[in-house]
Amino acid sequence: MKFSTLKPNIQSHRGFTLIELLVVIAIIGLLASTVLASLSSARSSARDAGRLSDIKQLQIALELYRNANNGLYPTNPTSSQVVNMNSGTANITPYISPIPKDPTHTGGNGYLYNMGYIAGVWNRTSYTMLFKFENQRVNRVGKVIPANSWCSITGGSGNGYSTWNGMNDVTGVYDNSSYTPCF
Length: 183
Fold this sequence. Notes:
Layout: H1 18-68, E1 112-118, E2 121-132, E3 137-138, E4 144-145, E5 150-156, H2 162-165, E6 180-181
């Protein structure tokens, strides 16, 4: 009598099927796209925080300039661009160096500055600056500033550059015809 050893017919599983691999790759791709989308939003928020810091630094530099120059703010830089405030009576580099630049907007879309303009006359007792934030903001009076839209900052004893800040030269009231105040 011959005895045969019975071997179970078990095949070893040596890997994953193509379908299993494709499912895993699809799940990883979905997770990666979600992370990248939230990372992009965080980056634009970080750039806006940098812009806010730049605004505050520029305002301080302008006040230091005014204190050192008999109460007068700088004259208009070339093309109204803040980055050009480095010579003559527009030179703020002794008070802030390097001059801040917008992280994404450049040239005529960067930070802009104009000295005051009241009743058709340029004056150096006030100023207005324009900035663009990447994300929608709400200013202190509850007005919505859409993403990538200009908003204005005015400083000094006058109304600033009324064409930019929406201030009516005669009444001293915002008439909403220009750029929304940033704050």
